[in-house]
Design a protein that fits this description.
This protein is of the alpha+beta class. It has one domain: VC0467-like (3-Layer(aba) Sandwich), CATH 3.40.1740.10. The chain contains five helices and eleven strands, in the order E-E-E-E-H-E-E-E-E-H-E-E-H-E-H-H. The strands form two sheets. It has a six-stranded mixed beta sheet with strand order 4-5-9-6-8-7. The longest helix is centred in the last third of the chain and has 11 residues. The radius of gyration is 17 Å and the shape is globular. The N terminus and C terminus are likely disordered.
Length: 207
């Protein structure tokens, strides 16, 4: 059974800007919406749910980037030993950092972290295997994650790379168009006062 890792045991992205001290106010349970100022293609039009955030850094999962691989394919071909799966749907690319399989789900009994009301996080193997056999429980499975070293996320926010909005279970488990979801949330976060997010070009350098 996997234990819950401490923040220092996760893989983090390379640090590209001067760190900003942790304010003491955690962003866990919030969405980060990639703004047009964020040029990193790993996060283009991404919605990141922050799972953990403290003075050591932050960990999040991109909730709107489904992969072509299905849950059943990953469970049978990539898991060792293979995991029995009774669920349909894709696996999600949680971010550019490698790591163990991570799951957001709606079953409190299998929670390692309560991220936001009705949304729980786990990396526990037994819990994941059980959830794979519960097709009626809302769930997203992630390969990879997003990670920030101490002060790195704060520095990116200070440069306007991210918009911060409250997260809720409906948006976390939304399984429609990821691009449309980003556009809707970004517009609701008041960017629409100045520019229609749907008109932002795929290449932010084109304007």
């Amino acid at each position: 059974m996997l234990r819950l890792h401490t923040m220092s045991e996760f893989s983090f992205e390379s640090e590209e800007s001067e760190p900003t001290p942790f304010s003491g106010k955690s962003l866990a349970g919030k969405f980060l919406l990639a703004s047009s100022a964020l040029l990193d293609p790993n996060f283009e039009r991404s919605i990141v749910l922050i799972v953990q955030h403290n003075e050591e850094g932050a960990l999040g999962l991109i909730v709107n980037r489904p992969m072509k691989a299905s849950l059943k394919e990953v469970c049978s071909d990539a898991c060792d030993p293979p995991v029995v799966c009774a669920r349909e749907g894709p696996v999600y690319h949680g971010g550019p950092c490698e790591g163990v399989m991570m799951v957001l789900h709606a079953r409190a009994m299998d929670a390692q972290i309560n991220v936001v009301d009705g949304v729980y996080f786990t990396m526990d193997v037994a819990a994941i295997e059980s959830l794979m056999l519960a097709p009626d429980v809302p769930m997203k499975v992630f390969v990879g994650h997003a990670g920030w070293t101490a002060g790195q996320l704060e520095a990116e926010i200070a440069t306007g790379s991210w918009l911060i909005v409250p997260a809720d279970s409906d948006q976390v488990f939304f399984d429609g168009s990821g691009k449309d979801q980003w556009t809707k949330l970004t517009r609701n976060a008041t960017l629409g006062r100045w520019i229609d997010p749907g008109r932002i070009p795929d290449d932010p350098n084109m304007n």
